[in-house]
Amino acid sequence: MLAALLLIVLPSARASDQALWEHSTLNQILRRGELRVGVEAGYMPFEMRDRNGNIVGFDVDLARLMARYMGVKMTLVNTQWDGIIPALMTDKFDILMGGMTITPERNLQVNFADPYIVIGQTVLIRKGLIGTITEREQLDDPKYTIATKLGTTGDIAARKYFAKAKIKAFESEAEATLEVRNGRADAFVYDLPFNAVFVARYPGQVGLLKETFTQEPLGWAIRKGDPDFMNWLNNFLRVIRADGSYDALYGKWFEGTAWLKNVGGG
């Protein structure tokens, strides 16, 4: 009786696995010969435009390496941040690699691979406050205006940690940081890598409170119900961490500054 039951169950399980693979995003990528990657250019040093208008950055190099391991070409799909998850869910691209923080709310809509970097929120301050504001708590005051990028974890953190200050949310990092450079906003709350690069890019024009006050893992997002693609991504991340590829790219974008001369002004 048991043997007969196994004969029924095992072929059915194999058929189910094959059906999952047929519908896997990974299988579709291999058949198409193209990995489509969703990003939003503007998040230094993860993805931004160089002086020729090309999208470059840490995520872009990781995506290119990922495509090379798959044996396919890589295509970037630049997408507005407030619509980037819906775009993934409606198959505008295969994977979201736009420096997205893993949150429980987002995880209800998409699945995340293992974190590929951990960052935290910091505060960029206008020139006139350098030396006067030395701790973020000083900015939690109605007389200060805090700029944020709409829909980001920086926006959420600003409203939580600077509840007494005025919050002005903008569609892009460029708009928000321009407010601080021009003195129309006192500070900008955003991820440490972006703020650190921005200060290096505009020395003396803005200041940075370097201490992070959140801890945020970033992850690649994919559509739900795709265990084969998730398995491949997590193994890919383990391999590039072990063989030194990840460290080389991290050093290029986070520890080096040579790339700054190729990025247009903003």
TrEMBL record:
Which Pfam family is an annotated match for this chain, by its short name? SBP_bac_3
Report the coiled-coil segments.
none
What keywords are assigned to this protein?
Signal
Against InterPro entries, the record matches this protein to: Iontro_rcpt_C, Solute-binding_3/MltF_N
Q: Which GO terms describe its cellular component?
A: membrane
Statement: the UniProt record of this protein carries the keyword Signal: yes
Q: For the Solute-binding protein family 3/N-terminal domain, which residue ranges apply?
A: 34-256
Taxonomy, superkingdom: Bacteria
The record's section on Gene3D superfamilies has:
Periplasmic binding protein-like II
Instruction: Give start-end of the signal peptide.
Output: none
**Locate the Ionotropic glutamate receptor C-terminal domain: which residues?**
34-256
A molecular-function term among this protein's GO annotations: ligand-gated monoatomic ion channel activity
Q: Which family does it belong to?
A: Belongs to the bacterial solute-binding protein 3 family.
- Name of this chain's protein: Transporter substrate-binding domain-containing protein
Organism whose genome encodes this protein: Solimonas terrae
